[in-house]
Amino acid sequence: MITDAAIQAARAVMAGIVVRTPLVEAAALSELTGARVLLKLENLQATGSFKARGALVRLNALTDPQRRTGVVAMSAGNHAQGVAWHARRLGIPATIVMPEGTPFTKTLRTEALGATVLLSGATLAEAQATAEQLATERGLTLIHPYDDQHVIAGQGSIGAEMLEDCADLDTLIVPVGGGGLLAGIAVAARARKPGITLIGVQAQGFAPLARPPSVGSGRAQTLAEGIAVKHPGQLTRPIIESMVDDVVAVGEAALEQAVEVMVETEKQVVEGAAAAPLAALLSAPERFQGRTVGLVVSGGNIDNRTLSSLLMRGLVRAGRLARLRIEISDAPGTLAQVSALIGAHGGNILEVHHQRLFQDIPVKYAELDVAVETTDTHHLETMIAVLGAAGFPTRLLGSLAGQE
């Protein structure tokens, strides 16, 4: 049984080693949603994630023989870095088993922290099987990412800090994978404010705790790989079921939007799992209007390429970046006329591809594929209408608008 006393003991272990991250007001998000929104910025931990908390508490509990032999952990990235960071500091050999699809930024950082990284399996469950085998064969101690009382107690320190920093919080929204974070926060929060509303958020297809559950078959992918866990822990599940008010699932479009909004409005780079609480808030703002809501921003370890692609997709979704296909006569000066029209109406051309072959149009005509910057969807629609009225039929290509 995880108790608040265990969480307090964990806090003593972490004092002066793990960052007590700030709880900050998010004015833009508050205005956007109608709730008073505060962000617990665990992305500011030294390893970029809350996992540094539980990892330290678990490693601190090792016996001397266990420390000498070493530890093994399975992780999609953040637990790996937490274990590697503290194991190096404590002089404990660490082996980390990570799924084969883990973002490069997480594998490289884990190796840079001194751990031996082994890629095995397509899912965390498959990586766990390998980690358990290594533990048996080599006598290593398995440091579980969530189903461990020391880890849960360490993560619970976040809930204690949030309510100490803002006693007015009446709702906490927390990302959920295996459940260690939510279970620990639930214990701490209920001990300090029994009537507080606790909501967990999972990724669609990886949501066994959601109501109703949503667990996909096969090897689905999600932006929130940090919470892509189909089977919560044996220790965490009963805590969540008894203490948490609701667990909701959010889709990929909502997760993408939340990452983008965090970057644009709060200037915080976050990973998909960390954006899940905001995705839940933005998906149902009416549920939280007038409430004081704390969002646990669990980590910021997002792959640079993924972030770049996501932000560009956001520009497309907002109508600020578009690809147009324009039909023109294949005659001198026509391209200049089209360019002048776009420029005169405030568009900025980024790329032009002049298509004469392989098109279902008359031989005296051609098509232009133009990548153009605009201010918003209305501006884009106006530009398409202007081009059409000038005798250049235009259609939008590859829009992400309305994608679910």
UniProtKB/TrEMBL annotation:
Cofactor(s) required for function per UniProt: pyridoxal 5'-phosphate
Enzyme class: lyase
Record InterPro entries: ACT-like_dom_sf (IPR045865), ACT_dom (IPR002912), ACT_ThrD-II-like (IPR044561), Ser/Thr_Dehydratase (IPR050147), Ser/Thr_deHydtase_PyrdxlP-BS (IPR000634), Thr_deHydtase_catblc (IPR005789), TrpB-like_PALP (IPR001926), TrpB-like_PALP_sf (IPR036052)
Pathway connected to this protein: Amino-acid biosynthesis; L-isoleucine biosynthesis; 2-oxobutanoate from L-threonine: step 1/1
EC number: 4.3.1.17, 4.3.1.19
Gene Ontology BP annotations: isoleucine biosynthetic process; L-serine catabolic process; L-threonine catabolic process
Domain ACT: 323-402
Transmembrane segments: none
MF (Gene Ontology): L-serine ammonia-lyase activity; pyridoxal phosphate binding; threonine deaminase activity
Annotated catalysed reactions: L-serine = pyruvate + NH4(+)
Alphabetized CDD domains for the sequence: ACT_ThrD-II-like, Thr-dehyd
Keyword tags: Amino-acid biosynthesis, Branched-chain amino acid biosynthesis, Isoleucine biosynthesis, Lyase, Pyridoxal phosphate
Coiled-coil zones: none
Family per record: Belongs to the serine/threonine dehydratase family.
Physiological role: Catalyzes the anaerobic formation of alpha-ketobutyrate and ammonia from threonine in a two-step reaction. The first step involved a dehydration of threonine and a production of enamine intermediates (aminocrotonate), which tautomerizes to its imine form (iminobutyrate). Both intermediates are unstable and short-lived. The second step is the nonenzymatic hydrolysis of the enamine/imine intermediates to form 2-ketobutyrate and free ammonia. In the low water environment of the cell, the second step is accelerated by RidA.
Protein name: L-serine dehydratase
Annotated organism of origin: Magnetospirillum moscoviense
